[in-house]
């Protein structure tokens, strides 16, 4: 069953070169300053602040980029994510979209940490709300993971996001995040988030984000 699901999840990714449209590219550059690098409810920076710059190039439905963060404790101190994906609306639907992304993770000391294919599908009943499901697969016979999310934007550019996820392996933790965000300008935002799992104590993060399209000075 897992092998069949892996093949189905990988098919859209194999079609990535066909998905790019012949339009000018955008280059988005940004940086996050966060009080704690948290992934799936666990700290990756040993509960210390992290600086997380990124750069992403997109053309039509196709995109790819680099994302960085300091991590702790050693021997590794830097994480580099290399990713490629395709995203767009599902033809003939109303409010349905997809985002298929493959990410490869490298640490500066121990090297290649493997890759993950994420197949995400979302439904936006309005301009202010979106619900999503993401299937995660390492394509190496490992267990799948599932994430469910819900986002809503209120007046004054205040956003509320909820995420619940779990790896489908025995003994894995269920994790969840509740985040409240606020756009301070077209390029800058702030987020306060609560992270928890059924196997650990809660974590809280405060994150400042800045991003812009460096080719056209347009925010992505």
The radius of gyration is 18 Å
Tell me the number of helical segments per DSSP (H or I, 4 or more residues long): 2
Query: Can you summarize the main beta sheet?
Result: 12 strands, antiparallel, barrel
Which secondary-structure class do the elements indicate?
mainly beta
CATH fold topology: Porin
Low-confidence spans: 1-22
**How many strands?**
14
CATH superfamily (homologous) name: monomeric porin ompg
Distance between the termini: 38 Å
Q: Assess the beta-strand content as a share of residues.
A: over 45%
Give a description of the structure.
It is a single chain. Helix content is 8%, strand content 60%. The N terminus is likely disordered. It has a single domain, classed as monomeric porin ompg (Porin). The chain is built from 2 helices and 14 strands; from the N terminus they run H-H-E-E-E-E-E-E-E-E-E-E-E-E-E-E.
Provide keyphrases for this structure:
Porin; disordered N terminus; twelve-stranded antiparallel β-barrel; 220 residues; 2 helices; two-stranded antiparallel ribbon; mainly beta
Brief summary of the model shown:
With 220 residues, the chain is mainly β.
Mind sketching the topology for me?
Elements: H1 2-14, H2 16-19, E1 26-34, E2 38-39, E3 42-43, E4 50-59, E5 62-70, E6 78-89, E7 96-107, E8 111-126, E9 129-137, E10 145-153, E11 158-167, E12 174-183, E13 188-197, E14 203-213
Antiparallel strand pairs: 1-4, 1-14, 2-3, 4-5, 5-6, 6-7, 7-8, 8-9, 9-10, 10-11, 11-12, 12-13, 13-14
